[in-house]
# Entry
Amino acid sequence: MARLFREGPAAARADSDVRDVLVYDALRTPRTKGKPDGSLATVPPHELIRQLTDALRARQGAKAVGAVERLALGCVTQTGAQGGHIALTSRIYAALPDSAVAVTLNNYCVSGMSAVASAARAIALGEESLALAGGVECMSQAPFEGDHAPFFSDIGLAARLRYVSPPIVADLLATLADLNREQLDAVTVESHRRAALAWRKGHYQSTVVPIIRPDGGRVERDELMREGLSVQDLARFGPAFAALGALGHDSVLTNAIAGLSAVKHLHAIPHCPPIADGAALLLLGDATRGAEYGMR
# Structure
């Protein structure tokens, strides 16, 4: 049993008033390159959610999925293929109940987790008893910063909002933690090694759903791992974000943080999270509704 998110207003309630929230299933698509030549670039985001929903129907039963009362999706770049309320589009396209609440949520890098938290709170407080929650991001179709928020390019507004581009924040954290390039290279190589090892050992067999493309092709595996990556391979990549910092992001930080004289730019492109396409869904519910449909 997983008791989720006993916090905020719910924390003031007596334990007897707050339901345990159970995770009945958790699925995701493969993570693929978020570029036009990526394996999922021709699959719209709502189609990814539909295929995950169909997989949940096959695993947990159509009646259980047909009783879902909420679809909450995290999505950062809500434009183009991901515009126009992607959770609502996905709910209709995936043939989920018309009565189910649809929520599209942008909380940047924790959008999917925030969607799960919102669904869990609704169940814990008795507003609903079954929900689907997760996230979708198809960066091949909705590129990073593709919604063109004004503070992305207006450094004066960015300074007023204390907004700093994510790669510069990564360099800031490396500076504050006194990390060096060798440490960044080592953890990058180890991350790719562990991901590939997990695939070889079959750890993702029960949770990664193969996706069928419009051309009939089948995408079964993450394609962003570099199993044979070595520290020597990374040597040819220099720091990538000094020029971005010089546009004004560095000065926002040095003006705001006492004792910080400069941001040490260390991160290269291979250190960064890959530009990716993918989606994930959790099936959440309370114990009573889970027992009704025979779910564990």
Q: What stands out?
A: The CA atoms of residues 77 and 145 lie 7 Å apart. DSSP finds eleven helices and eight strands in the chain. The chain has a mean pLDDT of 94. The longest strand covers residues 276-285.
